[in-house]
Amino acid sequence: MTSAPQGPGRVAPPGGGPVRAQLVDRTDLLNRIRSALDGQGSVLLHGPAGIGKTALLDTLGSEAGSAGEAVLRSSPTAAEAGLPHLALIDLLGEALPGLAEELPAHLRHALERALLHSAPEPGTATDPLAVRVAVLEALRRLADRGPVLVLLDDTQWLDQASRQVIAFAARRLAGRPIRFAVTERTERADSEPRMTELCPGPVTEIPVGPLGELAVGTLLQERLGLRLSGLTLTRIHAASAGNPYFALELGRALGTPGAEAALATDPGRPLSVPQRLRELMAERLTALPADARQALTVLAAARTGTGLPADTAAPLTVAVEHGVLVHGPGGALQFSHPLLAELVAADTPAPARRAAHRLLADRTADPVERARHRALAAAEPDPALAAELDAAAATALTRGAPATAAELLRLAADLTPDDPDAATRRLLAAARNAATAGLPDLARACGERLADAPAADVRVHAALLLARLLGPDHPGADPLLATAADDAHGTPALSAAVHQERAVRALHRADHTAGFVELAAAEHDAAAAGDTDLLVELLAVRAPIELVTDPAHGLALLERGRSLSEGRPLTAAGVFVRQGLAVAHLRTGAVDRALAEVEALRTEVERAGRTEDLCNVHYIAASVYERAGRCTESYAAGRAAYELRERIEPNPGPARVLGGAAELAGGSAERAADLLDSAIRAAESDRDREWLAYAHGLRGRVDLLTGTPEAAAGHFLEARRLLRRLQFTDPSLFLLDADLAEALALAGRPGEAADALADASVRVDRLGREVVRLGLHRAEAVLAAATGDPRTAADTLRERIPAEHPYPLELARAHLVLGQLERRARRRAAARTALCEAAARYARAGCTPWLRHTEAALADLDPAAADPTPLQTHLVKLVREGATNREIAAALHLSVKAVEANLTRLYRRHNVRTRAELAQLDDH
């Protein structure tokens, strides 16, 4: 999972003025740049126009200025490339008056004339060598006063005179506290830069690459207020190739009235390419002969990687020579930049586009692709073709491609305007498949066309789909449900579906009274209609609530739901029931059964291509793997859930909770904190109490890891308050109680800790959740040590720790607390034994945040005698390789402060004072 975007900066149009914005998804790149600039290094950032190089310089300059460094900057443009010494004026024009008296007279006069601060004497020429030496001396004098950062932007437009002077100075600035950050526009990120001569050594060349799809979505939301998801976001990301400037320009074009809805309704529609992007890309196209441009129309209409017939491909040789096309994997021709394909499609008249699709349909053997191209070639209604598209959609579904099925069904609906009933049913099927595939924009666009459908069942199901897409708390769902209830009156199957949706919303608000009334009505109507699939859905809604009050009954409901769904096509309800079974087994400690259930389910959902369900299954799998002590797999599943949910869900809170949970399982506490802080803000904004509760609970665990129990207690108390408002009281649901009591005890609030433990113990007894008892014993020991004798507390906890436990991380945590209590009891040998046991268990589980925490406790236990931890051994290895503190932090997923703290411990342990002395030590 990528971290939440951080850091100020800007994305600037190439050659244009600055446009302020937040830097997005550049944290790792910035850290790499900072590491390269540590000391007296230089960096050369290179990449295509608009990729964000200027924004990175903005951030570096802002940071250096805030730290008190002198910042010199030049940002030339193409129009200024012929003006001599213009970059020198930018860099030194303001600094010259303060330097003038320090320079020898002949150098001062030469520099003043070059910078146009004084006019040359009649009949005399400025000595080029004097200017070069004067600039060198000026930079040296500035560096003598303090650190200097020189920022040279867009050096491809640097005037020749300035380039020669700066290159002269760069070769002679070694040993001075002066750093250079230089940018150069290249055709691609992997192209070879040419401006290394402008950088004092050592120089690090760093390509600036594209943003990922999630980062493009964040950029468009932060800059333009566009909350894109699904197919629309994928189109923008693909067309821009992750270039932030291109994505913003395409996003602005989408911001015009009706443009976003039109694109969502018709995914085959070409993107509108703004004039500023045309100016960057179209020159290569206009240079091509007519037959090549006509052949490009066919290539633009084809799927990427499609091989063209020889007679069509022959004229495209010249397009390769002009850099419009390249040979992709397998040798197939493809556009050198995806925006060129959008330009070709946008500029091709409709008859020519249809002709291109006819040609491709005639040359395609695959029935799904052939039907799609035939539909895009059609100019008038064609019921026979619509039927062919229905069959192709069914084939796509057997291949696990609901997104393709949705596109085919939408095309089929458009080909049958004279049969409104058939057209609207195809649109409803398109909307449902789009939602299943994680394409909410296409689902919404199709659903909104069904308000006037002739059949009541189509109108009802469309309204319910639109309500679900809005989310459980959105007030806009209420009128949709009211309309659906009116249309459903007198039809049991439809009434059951409306009651079900109302039940889900009431239960989400923790209004269980209203929720169970609606569920009862839904079950009555579903039974009257003989709707088995709906009965499974209703069991999936009721069972999780019953699990909280009567676990045996809840488990029986889930088993009944699974039995009803066996042998039927995979549905969201069937998936939910099986997820619920996995969770139910997990809460009782039957981890093996939970693992078997969720792993089989994930395989089936992946095969079916059900993106939305897959996101939820990844989420449950991450929880199961974490409690099973398989944190590497938990991290992978959690990251997958985070990335999928961020892509398809317009509200970012749930996705970032999943990302934070993944980091706590197998990533880093620092990244977890960033994601969870972002999740809390988002969930508060969306008034989503459930995900807000989970975000606070996980954030409290980060605070326990980082040694701030008072802050942890605050987060845990808020999580408990929110969960109780939702009537989520099962102590095995979130494993919150022990952490809350421990944090309260460590924060000096023993009375509240004792109350929390007593309350948890009552619920454990009532629901039979013995699997969480070890955690309560751990917290009781912490409380006993805080209010009495640590030795007695440690002895009692040691006796209560079993040899094995269904939740391996709970066992590791118990040994960790035992080690901490033994240290307080001044029994260092026993403390070391317990901590080593905890570290070994965390290492086997792959739980890196808690492993690092435990290793730090071991290092602090007896720094003069203890063996170095694996973390410290790796750190010393990196020191010997010459890595900076920032590079070490990035490699070990630590903060720079954590690296510094570990170095301090190693200095004390080995009685050394410098990195060089540490690097020279023998391994033993």
UniProtKB/TrEMBL annotation:
SMART domains: HTH_LUXR
Pfam families linked: AAA_16, GerE
HTH luxR-type domain span: 865-922
Keyword Nucleotide-binding in annotation: yes
ATP-binding in keyword set: yes
Keywords: ATP-binding, Nucleotide-binding
PANTHER family xrefs: TESTICULAR SOLUBLE ADENYLYL CYCLASE, TRANSCRIPTIONAL ACTIVATOR DOMAIN
Name of the protein in its database record: LuxR family transcriptional regulator
